[in-house]
């Protein structure tokens, strides 16, 4: 199929882009990499009157250091940059480890972090990463700029707090202390959407967990932070019993949806297996047993 007819504009600045969105509120769709919007247009899932192509907004294509040890990432930064950037790998090695699982190389070369977050697919890796990393998402409109936490940004499948005249412009990742990380994903074929995935960060000092973060995707309407599992891990020595209790805490309240690909019970099983592998991988890295 081909898209329904639409008008097209390609602004040269963020200011121009948000002005166009304000003037066409409810009638326009933003296109960044187009890896999600393109198929939706072709299948006529969406029929905007206007496409606002932000691919010229090079002011939004950057990865910069923050004074607190974190990163500031422009919304037009490509997946491939997040996968290969030495700065990203040095500050948040879980990001490149995760990005290698995103679709195929051709899509990673075009897809953008802002586009992925705005699309809010519950089986997408970047929404889960920003939950795991406690990101702040900067949003611009003709009214000015506001910042929303990743916790509050996603409100349902393919649904966010973005208003129709707003544009994601920046993602702020605060600095954090961690020496163990892991990401695990299960999909039927390489490049397919994940049936389930998990990510873990650990800060271990003298054998004790000072901080832990656990997140999951593909097992709910939005990416999830598993705070109960984090509470089990904090202060522990990461023994076998602790890991099992953390996995149980992470998965006990999950209510995955059923579709053609997996039953809720199978997704819960996958979540438990992947969470266990993630914690074990992160623990191995804190002990220097895994690069």
UniProtKB/TrEMBL annotation:
Q: What does the UniProt keyword field contain?
A: FAD, Flavoprotein, Oxidoreductase
Leading EC class: oxidoreductase
What residues does the FAD-binding PCMH-type domain cover?
Answer: 1-178
In Pfam terms, one family for this protein is: CO_deh_flav_C
Any one GO molecular-function label of the UniProt entry: anaerobic carbon-monoxide dehydrogenase activity
Residues spanning the signal sequence: none
PROSITE patterns per record: FAD_PCMH (PS51387)
| Its EC number(s) | 1.2.7.4
Protein name per its UniProtKB record: Carbon-monoxide dehydrogenase medium subunit
The organism encoding this protein is Variovorax paradoxus
């Amino acid at each position: 199929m081909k898209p329904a007819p639409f008008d097209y504009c390609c602004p040269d600045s963020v200011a121009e882009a948000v002005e166009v969105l304000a003037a066409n509120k409810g009638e326009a769709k933003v296109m960044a990499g187009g890896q999600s919007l393109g198929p939706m247009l072709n299948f006529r899932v969406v029929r905007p009157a206007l496409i606002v192509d932000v691919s010229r907004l090079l002011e939004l294509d950057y990865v910069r250091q923050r004074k607190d040890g974190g990163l500031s990432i422009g919304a037009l930064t490509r997946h491939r940059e997040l996968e290969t950037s030495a700065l990203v790998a040095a500050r948040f090695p879980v990001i490149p480890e995760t990005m290698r699982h995103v679709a195929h190389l051709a899509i990673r070369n075009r897809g953008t972090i802002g586009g992925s977050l705005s699309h809010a697919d519950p089986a997408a890796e970047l929404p889960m990463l920003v939950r795991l990393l406690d990101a702040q998402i900067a949003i611009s409109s003709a009214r000015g700029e506001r910042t929303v936490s990743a916790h509050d940004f996603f409100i349902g499948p393919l649904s966010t707090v973005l208003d129709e005249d707003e544009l994601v412009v920046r993602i702020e990742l605060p600095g954090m202390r961690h020496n163990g990380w892991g990401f695990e994903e299960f999909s039927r074929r390489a490049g397919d959407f994940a049936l389930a995935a998990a990510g873990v960060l650990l800060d271990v000092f003298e054998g004790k967990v000072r901080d832990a973060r656990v997140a999951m995707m593909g097992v709910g309407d939005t990416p999830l932070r598993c705070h109960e599992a984090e509470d089990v891990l904090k202060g522990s020595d990461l023994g076998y019993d602790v890991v099992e209790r953390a996995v149980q805490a992470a998965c006990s309240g999950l209510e995955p949806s059923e579709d053609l690909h997996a039953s809720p019970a199978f997704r819960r099983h996958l979540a438990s297996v992947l969470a266990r592998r993630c914690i074990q991988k992160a623990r191995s890295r804190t002990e220097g047993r895994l690069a």
